[in-house]
Amino acid sequence: MGSAFLHETFPSDFLWGVGTSAHQTEGSWNQDGKGPSIWDHFTHTRGSSTADTASDSYVRWNEDVEAVAYLGTHFYAFSLSWPRLFPNGTGSPNAAGVTHYRLLIDRLKARGVQPVVTLFHWDLPQVLQERYGGWTNHSMVEIFAGYAAFCFQTFGGSVKYWLTMHNPYLMAVQGYGTGMHAPGGTSDPAAPYVVAHNLIRAHAKAWHVYNTHFRSLQKGQVSITLASHSINPVRTTPANVELCQKSMEAVIGWFAGPIHGEGDYPTSLKISSHGLIPEFSPEEMFFIQGTADFFALSFGPHTLRLGKGLPLFGQKLSLDLRQVLGWIQLEYDNPAILVAESGWFSNAHKTVEDTVAIYLLKGFINQVLQAIVYDSVPVFGYTAWSLVDGFEWNFGYTMRTGLFHVDFNSTGRNRAPKTTAKFYKQVITDNGFPQEKIQGYFPCDFQWGVTDSILQVSRKVKS
After folding, report:
1. What is the pLDDT of residues 101-150, one digit of tens each?
2. Fold for domain 15-462?
């Protein structure tokens, strides 16, 4: 693959977006009837940074809408807080939570911005963790389907793109394996595989709920956001290339294989799990296969940081988004792709000047453009992550990913556009990177000259 920068524009119908998640930005963790999530419990009991206030977006949601409008994006991707809508996980919905999201969706639509809505971005109601053991319990499949049905019924008339869950790989591995994420499980080596199994079945069930009961009227699309790292062989040998393939299958293929592929896990993953991975019945494989109307990809800093912990036998991590898009194209029969999360992080001390983040954001966007132009990958949208600085999970507030700087020391959580926001706004205006051709003449009195180094001249004289 060539790495030269491509000066070209995106297709005229390409969708530009920006995203956030509820727990990272909303705050108001126990206000207006919201129940605790596993992340509230996780951070409160470990004495770490919390998202109790975060970016205060539950209160200042209209400021976020104005920030989206400033960028000029076609869509705003955000997640619904499950415990804000259902404090007890199930049962009667919380009216204040329903009203909040209706207001947000209506305001976005009024500004000409489409909502792209994720049902579950890791903030499981704590009561479901205590009552069922969270995603280790198969009962969560039906519970999630019921929650999804409520959201489709309540908000679906205004939502054309749904994402059932965000990056289930991290939920399974970090939440129930390493313990770095909520709920902090570490005791059972089989737990991540069981959790992933139930997450996949829950997604498929939600997709079928939409397909059976809502699609004909609402005419929307449903997918699941899957994350990937990018990996290359240190030396291009058949053995190393095969190891890279297995590494991809062990991360994105774990979930994409059943949903976008043949309805089952990759063979290499079954072997490497040493019998810990559950089996799908033939009926389940048929039920799960094809339960995505497009491929939603996350390629962000958390995925890449996680990749650094993977066994790298003859492999090296890279920042090649184009390569990942090409891999998806070949592996899963050329699906339409939405880049549902892409961006970079900066250290906490960074304010509105963020040159490195601009450089990386520009590179990721251009890699998408190259994938479209050179490789004919059908990418139809890009989501810059994230709109505002917020709570960055196990990193707390030690890193920032927002296009808008949030002053966490101010009671108003004041927002200001960073240089990344201004850059992204220009990319959207230009619909990419048009070739700039500058033609003209210098002024008649322009002075041309030549110079030399004083040090060099003095050395020549002395010699």
Report:
1. 999 999 999 999 999 999 999 999 999 999 999 999 999 999 999 999 99
2. TIM Barrel (3.20.20)
How many other C-beta atoms can be found within 10 angstroms of the C-beta atom of residue 160? Answer: 15
Q: Which secondary structure element, helix H or strand E, spans residue 257, and what is its range?
A: helix 238-260
Tokens of 444: 């008649």
The C-alpha atoms of residue 445 and residue 206 are separated, in whole angstroms, by 71
Distances in Å between the alpha carbon of 340 and those of 5, 294, 383? 23, 11, 5
CA–CA separation, 114 and 205 (whole Å): 25
Burial class (CB in 10 A: 0-12, 13-18, 19+), 397: middle
Note the pTM of the prediction, 2 decimals. Answer: 0.93
User: What is the share, in percent, of the chain residues with pLDDT greater than 90?
Assistant: 84
Rounded to a whole number, what is the largest CA-CA distance in the chain?
91
Triad 167, 301, 306: Cα angle to 5°: 65
Coil, helix or strand at residue 421: helix
Nearest to 297 by CA among 250, 260, 346, 349: 260
Domain boundaries, the chain: 15-462
Q: What per-residue string of b and e applies to 3-17 under the rule 16 or more CB within 10 Å gives b?
A: eeebebebeeebbbb
Distance CA 345, CA 40 (A): 23
